[in-house]
Amino acid sequence: MGKGSKRRLEQIPDEQMQENWDKIFSNMNIQHYPLFNIKKLEKIYSEKDGVEVKYVCTTDLQNSDIPADIFYRETPHPQFGNYYFGILQQHGQTMIINADIVESLEFGMIEVDAKYYYSQSHHDCKVVADRSALGFKMIDGGREYIRSSGGTTNIRITDGKFHAVQ
Q: Sign of the C-alpha dihedral, residues 42, 126, 66, 144?
């Protein structure tokens, strides 16, 4: 990198850099594979709680290979105090759980044809056809580890949105 380029990078304030990343990630075409009808659940919980509830992702939280659809609300739940909740199936039952831990987890994503894919759970290996020399890309490991056939974009979730890990 030339001396002038480095100087320009150093002059960008952290707030402006984060705003630039926010614009990039808000336009990412992230491919999700939810467990439930997320539009229906967003509507039900938004009406029930009187605040907008939006789907964020589907992922393991604390238990391996038990993914949950994760939802976010801007204000804490009046009774439980959480901003995120997850809906999952376990032992044949549908359960709702506190999912605030999702902000501490890292997601690795692969990019194929301007679409981004992530492994939802520990043993969820996503293989996606690609026009690269290999003919495919893969991502595996959920939140336990990140294994891929090439480079990944590493992100976290904050305030219900994906952000680059810096």
A: negative
Q: Is the pLDDT of residue 13 over 70?
A: no
User: Could you tell me the two tokens for 19?
Assistant: 């705003």
Among 82, 71, 35, 57, residue whose Cα is nearest residue 143: 57
Give 5's pLDDT tier (boundaries 50, 70, 90): very low
pLDDT of residue 58: 97
The upper half-sphere exposure of residue 131, i.e. CA atoms within 13 Å in the direction of its Cβ, equals: 2
Question: Alpha carbon 95 to chain centroid distance?
Answer: 20
Hey, what are 98's tokens? 């506190």
Long-range contact list for 76-82, CB < 8 A, 24+ apart?
77/49
Q: Which helix (H) or strand (E) holds 98?
A: strand 93-98
Task: Please tell me the distance from the alpha carbon of residue 125 to that of residue 118, in angstroms, as a whole number.
Answer: 9
Q: Cβ–Cβ contacts within 10 Å for residue 164, how many?
A: 15
Rounded-to-integer distance, Cα 55 and Cα 47, Å: 15
Distance between CA atoms of 28 and 120, rounded to whole angstroms?
A: 17
